[in-house]
Amino acid sequence: MTGGETGPSPRLLIVGPPGAGKGTQATQIAETLGVPAISTGDIFRANVRDETELGVKVKTIMDAGDYVPDSLTNELVSDRLDQSDAAQGFLLDGYPRTLQQVGFLDDYLSGKGQALEAVILLVADRDEIVERLRKRALDQGRSDDTEDAIRHRQDVYLRETAPLLESYRSRGLVVEVDGLGTIEQVAERIDAALGERGFRSTAAAS
Ligand code: AMP
Questions:
Q1: Atom 19, ligand 1: residue with shortest CA distance
Q2: CA distance 193 to 80
């Protein structure tokens, strides 16, 4: 294996239901591919914690579980993607969440002569995920996290991602991966699926 051969620049998104371990997978895949994992939720939370101007603006919105306005979110993402570590690729997690954001990201990338390469979709049976999360809530003593609430979040996810996925599917970008199993199993499946698309790990071959 020749060093530094990474195939196409990995400009990727990861989409998956709440509770499918998406954040963990995102960090791992990004590391393997040698690109930054960019989670809008994490960036917003860090701003709230540090009480930045942006954090103060978005705190109430986030506390209510609503979406931060597209304009603010798009600006945050384009600023982040402008940073040098994202020049050779990135893995976005939690963005885009609206069709307006999908359009913004397309325009942003095409302005740089770039495009998304793939959308990793973690697929998991809704009932199994609900059961898993219900058990976890019980184990952690989070009795407020009721089955109804968990189910509701799954339904919201399915409803809200459907139009985005339709847009990406019509462009042949969606790579479906079975999201049930251990972290290692899912990571291996993602790795294999990306490998088929020509994305090679930058991790040193031992
Ligand atoms: P997450 O950790 O991805 O669930 O994001 C936590 C919160 O951050 C969400 O509930 C929203 O308030 C905000 N957020 C994250 N990503 C976006 C986005 N793409 N568009 C709008 N709001 C977002």
A1: 95
A2: 27
HEC profile of 125-176: CHHHHHHHHHHHHHHCCCCCCCHHHHHHHHHHHHHHHHHHHHHHHHCCCEEE
- From the list 49, 112, 135, 142, the catalytic residue is 142
Residues 6+ positions from 38 with CB-CB distance below 8 Å: 77, 80, 81, 86, 90, 91, 92, 93, 95
Mutate to test the pocket of ligand 1, among 67, 79, 80, 98 (most ligand atoms within 8 A of CB): 67
189 is catalytic: no
- Determine what percent of the chain is predicted with pLDDT higher than 90: 67
95 vs 39: CA distance, rounded Å: 7
> Into which CATH architecture does domain 11-195 fall?
3-Layer(aba) Sandwich (3.40)
Nearest CA to ligand 1 atom 3: 41
Instruction: For ligand 1, say whether the CB of 62 is within 6 Å of any of its atoms.
Output: yes
Domain ranges of the chain: 11-195
Length of the chain counted residue by residue: 206
Give pTM, 2 decimals. Answer: 0.89
Q: Which atom of ligand 1 has the smallest separation from the CA of 39? A: 3
pLDDT in tens, 147-177: 888 898 888 899 999 999 999 999 999 999 9
